[in-house]
Amino acid sequence: MTSLRFKAVEAASKKRPLEVAVPSERPSEYYAKYVFNQEKMFKYLPLSTYTKLREAIDEGTPLTMEVANEVADGMKRWAIENGVTHCTHWFQPLTEGTAEKHDAFVEHDRKGGMIENFSGKELIQQEPDASSFPNGGIRSTFEARGYSAWDPSSPVFIIGDTLMIPTVFISYTGEALDYKAPLKKALAALDKAATAVAQYFYPNVTKVTANLGWEQEYFLVDEDLYGARPDLMLTGRTLMGHDSAKNQQMNDHYFGAIPERVAEFMKDLEIQALELGIPCKTRHNEVAPNQFELAPIFEECSLAVDHNMLLMSLMRKIAKKHGFHCLLHEKPFAGINGSGKHNNWSLTTDTGTLLHGPGKTPEDNLRFAVFIVESLMAVYKHNGLLKASIISASNAHRLGANEAPPAIISAFLGRQITEILRKIEESTTEELFNIEGRHGIKLDIPQIPEIMVDNTDRNRTSPFAFTGNRFEFRAVGSSANCAAAMIVLNTAMAEALTLFKQRVDALIEGGQSIIGAVLDVLREDIKACKPIVFEGNGYSDEWKEEANRRGLDCETSVPLIIDRYLLPSSIKMFEDMNVMHKNELEARDEIKWETYQKRIQIESRVLGDLCMNHIIPVATKYQTVLVDNVQKIQSAFSTEDAKRLTSYNIDLIEKINVHTNTIAEQADKMVEARKQANLIENIREKAIAYHDNIVPYLEEIRRHIDKLELIVEDEMWTLPKYRELLFIR
Ligand SMILES: NC(=O)CC[C@H](N)C(=O)O
């Protein structure tokens, strides 16, 4: 069996780039080819239907069944022209993936034949009968029905022979069972709160949209090598593997020339993504060997979430075609960079103002300061909850090292913004107002240059960094659904702005001018949110101590971080902003604890198997070779010479013994610990037991395996090594 590794290495080394046929049209021409976008709506729908659908999209007015039927009819014509035979509701259950169940267009024509039909009812609502989606106890099996309902603001698209209809997924009793439903509500709450505050400065604003630009990091590993690593296949990460002598220390991969096989994969991916309307912009080698990144142009948040989910599934599929496996795990390899999905977040008004961007007038800059400071208030007040929104069994491995932020949420502002906030805080309203001749008053807030030198993503240890006209939430993990983080961030921002407005309005009612009232409350908040601002090295031990003193959430245990969804401040925020009720939050936490516990359970089982079926047998076999050698030397030489000649191998034999014994012993204890943990009924307690009692074994066992990897003869080692996984492409 040793040969599986070498066969895989050989097969992988022989692979050549798979040349991709590039469409004859330009990207701008095939962009959104498979999306039922505005252009297609206009072409395939009667004008009155088109207008009503646009109203539903822009203003959220519900569609009547009559209009839905007309829309379905137009969609069907477009779909059939593209060879489509099936349709499905496409939704985002709480599994981190997406779900679909295809139905063919066909129906009996009552004359013994078939017709192809697609009705408005099928478009707007389905009842996926599967009761097996995670529901955290909300949906008991006797009411197993869940509804999926079309969200007209997310465009319908085609994949292969199927018309994909993006939907929200809710229970029979109306609770959200997915990421999309609460995201939509969070965005609505944000729109309402941000519009009201933006109107202090720009009375014409009627809508505020949250933007999201994600950066997807990923690894590509040759599929043959992947197939020879049971841990990668079953857990998405390597549970063992000694460092490669060369890894990322030369910094020669980052932004280097893209390897040819990978370049063809990227080309293929981008063509298909563009055809689905994903505006791919950037591609490059990331820091770790065999690590890469793709980032599109930012989009409206909910659409960006759909596009990221879609992209992740395209990546997995297209990678296979090119003989790769795409790893989206946050930390597939120990000791080198992991993969994040930095979420660039900003707000824009329907009048075209970027609320997180500086402007030209002093009023613009006051508005800018308000939106920056209220973002900080949101992050400060809910820093523990924000951490809960990004934490998972896999992301926990990534945080705190190799350019990923630590498990303490803080915000980075940069020198210029800090200076502006200090000036506002320290000046009185009178000082900030300049009487400007007959034109009345002028605000004396310093100009902010559009390019802020220290606001690139230079502070890579900051989880929430201001980068010039947006915040970059860097803590989000590569495999996550961005919606989890975006639900919390947008809801927290909605709450911060609502509270801001309440206080400003109270001052205005008391006779203050608008600007004066805004300044007073802003000054209060600049002071209040200071503990969240941190410009230094997030990895240092001093920061951990300092953050603790500042009262920031420093918890590192995943099951305990998950608790933060049920803090009184979290429940109040979600309920006040009408995003989720307590029972929905409880259900989500149940799912999170269960997912965590199961992932650790799987890792622990896989590692147990690897120990028994690979590591110990291989090490013992090599030990026998050594023993054989020792015996032969002893029979050929004098006792004295033999002692000298065998001392090195005898030492190795003993070392192997120590490691294999420890591995066997620890693996037994790990099984015992699992048995104990499995007796626990309460899912939170069980997750805690897995975290406290099983995870340490995974680490300890790995340490001994990695030592053995250095001792055992290379030819005998059955599992592809880090150098092979990371450098063959
Ligand atoms: N260049 C980078 O920004 C590296 C980011 C890093 N891979 C992360 O985990 O977030």
Brief overview, please?
This is Glutamine synthetase type III. This protein is an alpha+beta fold.
Could you give a short account of the major beta sheet?
9 strands, mixed
- Helices, by number, come to 25
Distance between the terminal alpha carbons, to the nearest Å? 23 Å
What is the typical, i.e. mean, pLDDT? 93
What is the β-strand count?
A: 19
CATH superfamily of the largest domain: Glutamine synthetase/guanido kinase, catalytic domain
Number of domains: 3
Give structural attributes.
binds glutamine, nine-stranded mixed sheet, Ubiquitin-like (UB roll), globular, 729 residues, glutamine synthetase activity, alpha+beta, Gln_synt_N, Gln_synth_cat_dom, Creatine Kinase, Chain A, domain 2, 19 strands, Glutamine synthetase type III, Four Helix Bundle (Hemerythrin (Met), subunit A)
What is the strand and helix layout of this fold?
Elements (H helix, E strand, L loop, with lengths): L1 H13 L12 H4 L7 H7 L2 H13 L5 H17 L4 E6 L7 E6 L1 E3 L5 E3 L3 H5 E2 L19 E5 L6 E3 L2 E10 L8 H22 L6 E15 H5 L2 H6 L24 H16 L4 E6 L5 E6 L2 E2 H21 L2 E4 L13 E9 L12 H20 L1 H8 L4 H4 L12 E2 L2 H12 L2 H4 E3 L5 E3 L20 E3 L4 E3 L8 H28 L4 H15 L12 H9 L8 H5 L5 H9 L5 H55 L2 H40 L4 H29 L10 H6 L2
Parallel strand pairs: 1-8, 15-18
Antiparallel strand pairs: 1-2, 3-4, 5-6, 6-8, 7-8, 9-11, 9-12, 9-13, 9-14, 10-11, 14-19, 16-17, 18-19
Helix pairs in contact: 7-17, 10-11, 12-17, 12-18, 13-17, 15-18, 17-18, 22-23, 22-24, 23-24
